[in-house]
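Weekly puzzle thread! Below is a chain. First person to post its structure in token form gets bragging rights.
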Amino acid sequence: MDDHTNIPHRSSDGSAGDADYGSIGAGYSKYRQPEPAFAEAIDAALGDVATLLNVGAGSGSYEPIGLDVTPVEPSAAMRAQRPPNAAPAIDAVAEHLPFPDLAFDASLASFTVHQWQDLGAGLREMRRVTRGPVVILTCDPAALSRSWLNEYAPEVIETEAQRYPAITDIQDALGGTVRVTTLPIPLHCVDGFSEAYYGRPEALLDPGARRANSAWSFVDTRVEERFTRALRADLETGSWDARHGHLRTQATFDGSLRIIVATSSGERSTRSGEA
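Winning reply:
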């Protein structure tokens, strides 16, 4: 494995990123269920593989059934929310994967790279231990402002944009042949990241739904209070619907969600497919 001189700092819960899931992770799995449309895209990207490493595995979303899955998750709170029938997660971090070279057919990291303290080290580690495709599900920080949330809580969008790595940074760190594709978000998306509620604004009045999006833990409580007050008022008066009501029946939303697939470490990276 890579010989890194800097070991990522970890909270008392074991969380190795900027968010402490020991504090905000309770109830996460209630709001962040695997979205079937995203799972289908991940399965297609993985192809015909038998063994899979899931880095930043969290509560177990997007671990395909029928594969030999090895999850890695540093947060004890997140490991505790994994389903009883899921493989137990190894307590480790992306930057220091405790596996030999080329140990897995494929590897996956979903909604996690923005948490890593050293993006390049984590992606190099994934590439090191993977024989086949490396699949990353993440958000493009340049597209986050497409959400109506930017009108009500720009501080949250700004925070997310600062945390999520640029798509080109991920491509460059992975190397090889890299494909980037926009994933449309379904209207009734069950994976409750903020854009999942693009047509269901009332859902974000639920404190638990906001807590399941770690960006809210970085903004002042006054931002959250202002957001809920303004959104509730606009829903009551119809102002939100006057501006965004068409989203309530829009089947999908092309927001910031991207799936990145690196299929070879020996070829030059490409940037085709970006929407």
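Puzzle host: Confirmed. Bonus trivia for everyone else. Confidence is low (pLDDT under 50) at residues 1-5, 10-16, 265-275.
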